[in-house]
Specification:
homodimer, 275 residues, Dihydrodipicolinate Reductase, domain 2, 2 domains, twelve-stranded mixed β-sheet
């Protein structure tokens, strides 16, 4: 399950994507329009989305997932440069809530972080303050449920709909869907999550740097899909897109990259989802 | 409510859009892949979609809508040229089931026909054999429900889901949603439907033709939004996009256009929806 479950952050990211604005500028506009609160922490740091991810994972997998089980990363460090990189890959950037059941069916993971998704993915066209939950399962294939993620009337409509359902259930002596945790699957830590990564490095523009960097990836068992290098005044920017690797392996790689003399800095690390 | 409710025709139109193929070529591929039946009439002439439109209109408006009440036009006459025109307008073409409640709330309409929709509309990104129902209402805003429109496993999953719901209802002594026709709104004929139109005319390339054509539109109360004229060897093609007008007014206009000496033919008439 991949979800865009926070209207404020989707509005900000959509604004950055469509106008090339930076994070602060887009946040200011969201605040002026009443989409973002005076203290936007709960939204932009992903706390609101993480709470929703815990609820959605519980519904999806009949397993109790606690808020503490959800890995959380906000979107305050997404830059205009990240959007430019995403465009080059035919992607956009969304703050996603991702709940997955492992291929062996024995465990689940839940996480919230910014991610690149292909422009052809149904979630890529969820604009402004809209929300959507995209579900993929063996039997039903790909499903998506889309609607407003903010606003007085849509919120009132949803709450009223729930109240009507409760009244109907009480009248007929039945109950609606409740918490269901019978599957009781193991909730895996973030280190076990497997996905692809888009990594931007600032490196020295001299021979041998690419070999050094590639060696670090290989030593940590992270396979490289594509590399793009661009030089400028003795410095160079190196963009590496990996094949699927675990979060633990990626973290080990980045730690080792930071120790290389020739790597001036890790400009950004972005997961690539929905492919 | 705007719906893409037939997977076969959406596959064909998507193929025409993405490859520039003609209708017959795209249909042949759909047949080869098992998406289209040996006799594709029920799909490509819109009968299947019309039946679904009647059901959806009933659910949406609590009004009995019969199949005979649904205006129906197939998509066999959509051409590669129509897709080229759609692209110039920032649109694509979909076979849509459209159920609307009039602004005064007193009547409803239901219809199935090919239509241009903007590429920014959520339905524009419904590709291949996928289906989606897009709903817009005062309180809830825009909602969309998206999923596979064909295939063994998704169909089995949906049928099984319905059976489980029926079993649950029987066990708890309740019933699921049933036919609801208490609103009993009037079902208006197609002539009263109001929308925008994209009309391609083949005309003589000589002075005064545009004035003649524009006069016919004005005489029938159909207001013109944009006109584009392109000449080629004494012939010219004239593309007119109208403001909102009733189907009856548009039909009167087209009938009068056909009688003009300078109009060699009406190449296509396509409604423009979802703006």
């Amino acid at each position: 399950m991949l979800g865009i479950v926070n209207g404020t952050t989707n509005f900000i990211l959509d604004k950055m994507d469509s106008t090339g604005a930076g994070y602060q500028e887009a946040l200011d506009e969201a605040t002026a329009l009443g989409y973002a609160e005076a203290d936007p922490t709960a939204d932009v740091e992903g706390f609101d989305a993480a709470a929703k991810a815990a609820i959605l994972a519980g519904i999806a997998f009949h397993t109790r997932v606690r808020l503490d089980d959800v890995y959380r990363e906000g979107m305050t460090e997404v830059t205009a440069a990240d959007f430019a990189s995403a465009k080059e890959m035919g992607c956009t950037i969304k703050l996603l809530a991702i709940c997955e059941r492992a291929a062996d069916g024995e465990s689940v993971t839940a996480r919230v972080h910014p991610a690149m998704i292909p422009l052809t993915h149904p979630l890529a066209s969820v604009r402004g303050a809209y929300n959507a939950v995209f579900v993929e399962s063996d039997a039903s294939g790909q499903l998506m449920f889309y609607g407003p993620g903010a606003g007085g009337a849509p919120t009132a409509s949803a709450v009223l709909g729930d109240l009507v359902a409760v009244c109907r259930n009480r009248l007929s002596g039945t109950t609606g869907p409740g918490e269901s945790a019978y599957a009781a699957l193991r909730v895996s830590p973030m280190g076990e999550v497997v996905t692809r990564y888009h990594i931007s490095l600032d490196v020295a523009d001299k021979p041998g740097v690419l070999a050094q960097v590639a060696t670090v990836f290989a030593e940590h068992g992270v396979s490289i899909d594509t590399v793009r290098q661009q030089g400028k005044d003795g410095e160079a920017s190196l963009v590496v897109v990996t094949h699927r690797a675990s979060d633990a392996a990626l973290n080990g790689t980045v730690e080792a990259l930071r120790k290389l003399d020739t790597v001036r800095g890790v400009a950004s690390i972005m997961r690539v989802e929905g492919e």
